[in-house]
Amino acid sequence: MKKIIIIPTLNEEKNVTILYKKIKKNLKNYHILFIDDNSTDRTQFEIKDLKKKYKNVTYIFRKKRLGVGSAHKAGLIYSYKNKYDLAITMDADGTHDPKYIKKMLVLSSNYDLVITNRFLSKNSLRDWTLFRKFLTKLRYHMINLTLGISYDTSGAFRCYNLNQIKKTHILLAKDNGYSFFWESTFLLENKLYKIFEIPIKLPFRIIGSSKMRYKDIFFALAYLTLYFFKKNLGIIR
Fold first, then answer.
1. Which residue(s) pair with 7 in the sheet?
2. Quick check: 211 pLDDT over 70?
3. Which of 37, 80, 155, 230 is the most exposed place for a label (fewest CB within 10 A)?
C-alpha cells in the first residue's frame, strides 16, 4: 500500500532531522511530507537538506502561519490527490514516537481512523508540568462532556485509511487551528466511520517550545462552546 507521513512544522529546526532519522530507523517505504508555515528559523533549510539527501522527502512551504489544522488538511488533500492509501499525521516536536506507527498500520486494515490516547496508559504524561497536565485533562473532559464522545480527540498522532474515508467528510471540519482534531473526529464518528484508539506514552518536549498561544486556548474554548449550541440545535450532525 502507498503510505505517507504528514508532518506540519513551525520553527522546529532542531527536531526535523532527528525525527526523520527515527522514522527511517523504524519504517521503510514511506513518503514524508513536511508542511511548513513560514518558519523564521532554519527549519526550511533543514527540510530542503533532507530532500536533497533522501528521495522519499517532499515539502510544502506556506507563506504565513495558517494554523496546524489547516496544515493537516493541506497534507491530507495532497495525499488524496497523489493516490495514497494511508496517511499518518504526527507532530514535529519529538513527542510522537514513530514506533507506534506499525501498530496503527496493522489496525488500519480493520478501522478507518486510528488515533492515540494519552489517558489509556498510566503515567503517560509523567514528565509534563503540572499546569500542562491540568490543561490537557481539562480539555479532554470538556470536549467529551460537550460532544458526548469518549475519545482523546485533541491529539495529532493518527492514521487515516484514505480508501475508506471520503475527503469531503474530513473537510467538513472547518476549524484551521487546534480544534480541527476534535472536530474532525466528532464528525467522522457521526458519519459512522470505525475509529480505534491505542494507548501512547507522550513525553514532554525536550527541544524547542510549544507553539500554542493563549489566544489559541481562548479561541478553542469559544469554538467548542459555539459547537455545543449548534449541535444541540441540530445544525451540526
1. 34
2. no
3. 230
Grid cell locating 111: 478501522
pLDDT of 205? 63
Q: How confident is the model at residue 213 (pLDDT cuts 50, 70, 90)?
A: low
CA-CA distance, 235 to 233, in Å (whole number)?
6
Q: What is the DSSP letter of 191?
A: T
Q: Is this model's pTM higher than 0.90 or not?
A: yes
Q: Annotate 112-141 with b (16+ C-beta within 10 A) or e (fewer).
A: bbbbbbbbeeeebbeebeeeeeeebeebbe
Assess whether pLDDT exceeds 90 at residue 139.
Answer: no
Q: Where are the domains of the chain?
A: 3-232
CB within 8 Å of 192: residues ≥ 6 apart = none
Cα dist. 54→49, 50, 67, 171 in Å?
9, 6, 27, 31
| Distance, CA of 200 to CA of 209 (rounded, Å) | 21
Evaluate whether 143 touches 224 at the Cβ level (below 8 Å).
Answer: yes
At residue 2, φ and ψ (nearest 5 deg) are: -85, 120
Q: Check if CATH label 1.10.287.500 holds for domain 3-232.
A: no
HSE of 181 in the Cβ direction (CA atoms, 13 Å)? 25
> Would you state the pLDDT for residue 237?
63
pLDDT band at 236 (very low <50, low <70, confident <90, very high): confident
